[in-house]
Design a protein that fits this description.
The chain is an alpha/beta fold. It has 6 helices and 9 strands, in the order ααββαβαβαββαβββ. A hairpin with a 2-residue loop joins strand 1 and strand 2. The longest helix is centred in the first third of the chain and has 17 residues. It binds S-adenosylmethionine.
């Protein structure tokens, strides 16, 4: 049986081998990973694998992403602590909890109500307070509390909708797996006064974004 000590040892190893050794250098990001108890965001049956180097199922055909990918996406958000962030795809709430340590105000949308409940309980258990969870179609963004300084999409998007882009502040950035249904590229978009600056980071595979600007069921 795992104890609090063994989880904390697993977490230290995860941070060293999966995050620092692969080139994540932002100390604030590393500190967030050292402090968020990932084992509180997985299903009971997967708890012994909570700190392993791959995604895990969280029910409803969805996953909690691999720790390194969560760290990489978080680094590219370039957070200073002052930002209002929109996350699309709450899933387990783990990425939300990481964001909560690094930015001022987090709004996270999940389309599956059971996962919204799962994330809400996980975040409560982890003592995370500065997050606002919503149920809805995140492919349209969340206009009620727009504009945002950062937008993170944690599911594979075929496109970034005009609605979503209009909810981003100038100099704001979007981090998103963009491309095909089965393979995508992690991209960073920075909204400048005169247009969008785009950067491709690496190939990734994410579960599909659904909804009005997502993939339809096969
Ligand atoms: N970041 C999450 C974590 O730390 O557990 C993992 C997110 S999982 C890879 C992608 C999530 O996006 C799933 O929970 C899925 O239900 C959700 N999703 C897909 N399409 C969506 C949409 N249009 N609006 C909101 N959530 C959506």
């Amino acid at each position: 049986m795992n104890t609090a000590n063994s989880f904390s040892q697993d977490r230290c190893e995860m941070v060293e081998t999966q995050i620092i050794n692969r080139g994540i250098v932002d100390e604030r990001v590393i500190d967030a990973f050292r402090n968020v108890p990932r084992h509180l965001f997985v299903r009971e049956s997967d708890i012994k694998n909570a700190y392993s180097d791959h995604p895990l199922p969280i029910g409803q055909g969805q996953t909690i992403s691999q720790p390194y990918i969560v760290a990489l996406m978080t680094s590219h958000l370039d957070l200073t602590g002052k930002e209002k962030v929109l996350e699309i795809g709450t899933g387990s709430g783990y990425q939300t909890a990481i964001l909560a340590r690094l930015a001022k105000e987090i709004h996270s949308i999940e389309r599956i109500e059971l996962l919204y409940e799962f994330a809400k309980n996980n975040l409560r258990e982890a003592g995370i307070m500065n997050v606002h969870l919503h149920v809805g179609d995140g492919s349209l963004g969340w206009s009620n509390t727009a504009p945002y300084d950062r937008i993170l999409i944690t599911a594979a998007a075929p496109e970034i909708s005009k609605e979503l882009l209009s909810q981003l502040n100038i100099n704001g950035r979007i981090v998103c797996p963009l491309g095909g249904r089965w393979r995508q590229t992690l991209e960073v978009w920075v909204k400048e006064k005169k247009g969008i600056k785009k950067e491709k980071i690496l190939p990734v595979v994410f579960v599909p974004l659904r909804g009005a600007h997502g993939w339809q069921d096969l």
